[in-house]
Structures are given as C-alpha cells and as structure tokens.
Design the sequence.
C-alpha cells in the first residue's frame, strides 16, 4: 500500500515513488491511496476517559484501516514538512493510537511482521535534515514489530525538480527490488 501524503497532486515524492514502483514485477499488487482524498476526523486523545477504548473505525478511517490490514507492505510517500512527515501522514499515524485501543481490532498483532518503507523529498541541501523523518518512521516500525526497510530520498522544491536528482533516480530503480 502506497500512502500519498503530499498536500499537492503530482508532486516530486509521488513521482519518485512511481518511478520506484515501476520496477516492481508485473502483477505485483499495488494499492495507491491519496491521504488528502480520505480526510480523517480530528484525532481525540480519549485514552484516559471512561473505558479508554475507541469506537470502531467508520468512513474514511475504516477504508484506511482495512487497506492497512490487507497490506503486507506500507509505503509512506510523504514529503519532508518541517523536518518530519506531512500533516495527513501524521494524522493517519495518530489514528493508529485509537486502533490500538479499539476492542477486537488487535492492531499491534496485525501490524507485526509487515514491512514499512518510505519515499520522501525535501528541498534543503544537507541530508541531516531528513534524520527526524527517518527516526520517526523507524521507531514507529520498531514499536509495532514491523520491519523497517528504509527510505528513498530525493531533493526537490517545485514539481518536477526530482527528475534532475540523478542519484535519487538511480536509487529508485532498485529501491523496492533489492531492499526486500
Ligand atoms: C509545509 C511545508 C513544509 C516544508 N518543510 C520542509 C523542511 O522542513 N525541510 C525541507 O528541506 N523542505 C521542506 N519543504 C519543502 C518540500 O519538502 C519540498 O518542496 C518537497 O519536494 C515537496 O514534495 P512534493 O513535491 O511531493 O509535494 C516544505 C514544504 C512545505 C509545503
């Protein structure tokens, strides 16, 4: 499952992810979801209220939950926003906290063993500014017992810029096929 988290369509991160995914074997099942097409309710922290449980997911949240459980691999396709994941990506991650506390969902057990990947782009020059993004996702993977497969990084600002990042384009050709 590819989760598109940019706040614009046709951005660099999406382009880079598409180039990388084009190298997957023919017939390899891919599901692409644009998080902005599936807006979530404002997440509420009710962990310490009443029973401390969350109601079953509904609407867009249920679409994302079912897609999440069906996927063997989750690919965050998120630009770097303020040194971290985009807001829509973060909102999706926050609902995991509710799913962990929804009776009958068994979220952690169902996430264990899945593989987490990321594709990102950023406009800065120093690669150190990608570190918080990578740390966020790697630690989430560790917490949930998922395999962290790493990140494909491109450099860009305006749409199309990433096509000039030859190092990223080269990495994209083997990212999904050799990291596995
Ligand atoms: C809200 C916002 C925050 C951003 N924060 C950063 C940042 O912290 N570091 C950085 O290098 N670039 C930052 N950028 C630039 C984007 O990461 C860059 O333009 C990226 O290529 C956008 O991805 P997209 O083309 O897939 O939408 C930010 C852009 C936006 C819109």
Sequence:
């Amino acid at each position: 499952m590819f989760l598109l988290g940019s706040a614009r369509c046709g951005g660099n991160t999406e382009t880079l992810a598409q180039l990388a995914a084009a190298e997957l074997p023919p017939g390899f099942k891919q599901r692409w979801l644009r998080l902005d097409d599936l807006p979530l309710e404002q997440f509420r922290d009710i962990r310490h209220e009443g029973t401390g449980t969350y109601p079953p997911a509904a609407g867009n949240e249920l679409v994302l939950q079912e897609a999440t459980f069906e996927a063997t691999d989750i690919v965050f396709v998120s630009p770097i926003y303020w040194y971290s994941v985009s807001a829509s990506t973060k909102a999706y991650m926050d609902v995991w906290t509710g799913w962990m506390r929804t009776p009958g969902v068994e979220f952690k057990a169902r996430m264990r063993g899945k593989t987490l990947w990321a594709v990102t782009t950023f406009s800065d020059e120093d690669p150190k500014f990608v570190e918080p993004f990578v740390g966020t996702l790697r630690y989430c993977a560790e917490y949930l017992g998922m395999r962290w497969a790493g990140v494909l990084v491109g450099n860009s600002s305006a749409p199309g810029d990433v096509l000039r990042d030859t190092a990223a384009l080269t990495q994209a050709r083997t990212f999904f096929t050799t990291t596995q």
About this structure: The mean pLDDT is 97. Helices lie at 12-21, 59-70, 87-99, 107-111, 131-143, 166-178. Residues 84 and 132 are 6 Å apart (CA to CA). The longest helix spans residues 87-99.
